[in-house]
Amino acid sequence: MKAFRLDELEAERAANDGAYLQFLRERNMSVGLYALNAGEHDPQQPHNQDEVYFVVSGRAAITVGMETTQVARGSVVYVPAGVAHKFHHISEDLRVLVVFSPPES
To answer: Please, which domain of life does this record's source organism belong to (predicted)?
Structure first.
């Protein structure tokens, strides 16, 4: 078993000065913590993997393809591989768990 604490993951991510911290990688999936602060620009490009976002905290909008929805703590969003997507209108610091399948390359 592998178990993680969100507060420890956030501290590690912040200490490395990066928006993304991959903390689990297995043969069929990887999981990371993604952080964008209020007002920040999301630099993501489409990925070659399916993704699931689980919003841990914060508020924003996300556009996936041509669809836009508001997200906040507890929101879950699926993004198919190869589809353009970005968080925007980030009104509260955003922390999101990201699951990639297959693992992010």
So the answer is: Bacteria
CA 11 to chain centroid, in Å, comes to 16
Residue with the two structure tokens 């993501």: 44
DSSP string, 8-72: HHHHHHHHTT-SEEEEEE-SS-EEEEEEE-TT--------SSEEEEEEEEEEEEEEETTEEEEEE
pLDDT in tens, 68-94: 999 999 999 999 999 999 999 999 999
Strand, coil or helix: 7: helix
Other CB atoms closer than 10 Å to residue 78's CB: what's the count?
11
Kindly tell me the burial class for residue 29, based on how many C-beta atoms sit within 10 Å of its own C-beta (0-12, 13-18, 19 or more).
middle
